[in-house]
Amino acid sequence: MGDDCKQHNEIERIGYITRVQSFSACHRLHSKSLSDEENKRIFGKCNHPNGHGHNYKVEVTVRGKIDRVTGMIMNLTDLKQHMEEAIMIPLDHKNLDKDVPYFADVVSTTENLAVYIWDSLAKLLPLNTLYEVKIHETDKNIVVYRGE
Ligand SMILES: Nc1nc2c(c(=O)[nH]1)N=C([C@H](O)[C@H](O)COP(=O)(O)OP(=O)(O)OP(=O)(O)O)CN2
Ligand SMILES: [Zn+2]
């Protein structure tokens, strides 16, 4: 084994991998803890009873050791499967407030959506590997949650 190769194998390398997934959903910003007037004042047009839709883009980042044998932090095909289960099946083409029980009493802001996705993914991924959930609600509105 050459010196370069030996050194490559001896150092523990930590890396980050990210997979992106898009889904469409509708929602309304409305809190059951607030009066109708307060809801209108705080959430404005996003409190309209008809709701509105977004094409959300979610970036999920996993942190971990680059395995010396496989060269992978984790297989992206496995991450894809976990994102399908935690994001696409429960959220895609859904009314977040009516179809997702979690949002029955939790306001469907992008912050809370990021927490929901984090908690769902953390149950599926190896312990302490989930690093970041980033959601683009629109091209201009972006939320990051790191489990804190
Ligand atoms: N802190 C948060 N504020 C707001 C959220 C949120 O999730 N967290 N969400 C909304 C609305 O749901 C909606 O996303 C706002 O959309 P909109 O204002 O149309 O989005 P843009 O800013 O991208 O639209 P432009 O009008 O093109 O600027 C509101 N607040
Ligand atoms: Zn919205």
From TrEMBL:
Cofactor names: Zn(2+)
Domain of life: Eukaryota
BP term (GO), one: tetrahydrobiopterin biosynthetic process
Residues the record marks as active site: 46 (proton acceptor), 93 (charge relay system), 137 (charge relay system)
Pfam families on file: PTPS (PF01242)
InterPro entries tied to this protein: 6-PTP_synth/QueD (IPR007115), 6-PTP_synth/QueD_sf (IPR038418), PTPS_His_AS (IPR022469)
Cofactor detail note: Binds 1 zinc ion per subunit.
Gene Ontology CC entries for this record: mitochondrion
Reaction catalyzed: 7,8-dihydroneopterin 3'-triphosphate = 6-pyruvoyl-5,6,7,8-tetrahydropterin + triphosphate + H(+)
Residues that, per the record, bind Zn(2+): 27, 52, 54
Gene Ontology MF, one: 6-pyruvoyltetrahydropterin synthase activity
Keywords on record: Lyase, Metal-binding, Tetrahydrobiopterin biosynthesis, Zinc
Family as reported in the entry's similarity comment: Belongs to the PTPS family.
Function: Involved in the biosynthesis of tetrahydrobiopterin, an essential cofactor of aromatic amino acid hydroxylases. Catalyzes the transformation of 7,8-dihydroneopterin triphosphate into 6-pyruvoyl tetrahydropterin.
Name this protein carries in UniProt: 6-pyruvoyl tetrahydrobiopterin synthase
Species of the source: Megalops atlanticus (Tarpon)
Organism placement in taxonomy: Eukaryota, Metazoa, Chordata, Craniata, Vertebrata
